[in-house]
Every structure is written in structure tokens, then in C-alpha cells.
Amino acid sequence: MIRYLRNPTADTLAKLTRPTRDAITRYNLDGDLLTYAIDTFDTPRVVIPADDDLRARLVHEYHNAPAGGHLGREKTFAALSRDFFWPRMYKWIRKWGRSFEICQRVKSPASKQAPLRPLPIAMSAWRSVSMDFIFGLPRDAEGRTGVLGFQDGPSCSSRSRSDG
């Protein structure tokens, strides 16, 4: 990849693997500093080489930041990925966190889920209304990515009928 970025020719491009060729536009070489950006509007991040000691030191520094305390996996990844990038970074941080003894010792246990109970059957319209927010949808023309849905219980429930 570095050879291609220093000398972008058809010959150096042909020597790259297909996945690297597909992602090459996301990388930039500025002197000896390799950066990665998801798209042209993304802030470039420094690419960290495949050096487990360096990666562990970076994760440790961000995880144990004085301002943040022992950040969890999600916050450590979010903070670190603003400045740095390496392939399968999230997976690497998850694996590192599982081996970090202090966090494993003080981690709160997973909370139990409350038992689900059926809702009472409403006998008339608008006596039982459900609502739900759904986010993460593709942006619409106005830039919205979520919807709020309402459902009237009796008008949507299945009813068994007998004619006899």
C-alpha cells in the first residue's frame, strides 16, 4: 500500500490485494504519516501498524484517561477511533478489555431482564395504545432518520371468529 501511495502507477496498484485496492482511496500518505478517512468529509486518522505493544499502550492510555476514568469498551473505542485507525480495531479493543484484570474485577454484573407480561385486552378503540420510536433509518428528504409509530390495540389485534 505504501509503495502505491508513494508511486501510484498501474503496476503498483496491480500488486495490491483486491480488498486493499477497493479501500485505497481512504488512505493518504503525508511524508511518512499514513492516515485513513472513511470519506472526504471525515477527519483523517493516523493508521497504527500491526504492533500489539503499541496498540495496547494506546488503548491503555485512552481507557485510563484521567478525565474519564476507566472507560468501557464503547467509550474507549469512540475516543480512540477519533484519532487512530487499524483494521478490526473494535474487535481488538474488545479482546483487550476482556483481558484487563481491573475492569474484569469491578465490572458490574449484567442486570436481569424483567419478565414479560401480556397486556390486557382492550375492549374498545383507543383504550390501549402502544407507541414506539424507530431510529437508524436512511435519511429522508428533510434529513430525518427516525419515526414515531402509534398502534391502537383493538384495531390491530387478531380476532377469532366463529359463525356457528
TrEMBL record:
<feature type="domain" description="Integrase zinc-binding">
    <location>
        <begin position="51"/>
        <end position="108"/>
    </location>
</feature>
<dbReference type="InterPro" id="IPR050951">
    <property type="entry name" value="Retrovirus_Pol_polyprotein"/>
</dbReference>
<protein>
    <recommendedName>
        <fullName>Integrase zinc-binding domain-containing protein</fullName>
    </recommendedName>
</protein>
<dbReference type="Pfam" id="PF17921">
    <property type="entry name" value="Integrase_H2C2"/>
</dbReference>
<dbReference type="InterPro" id="IPR041588">
    <property type="entry name" value="Integrase_H2C2"/>
</dbReference>
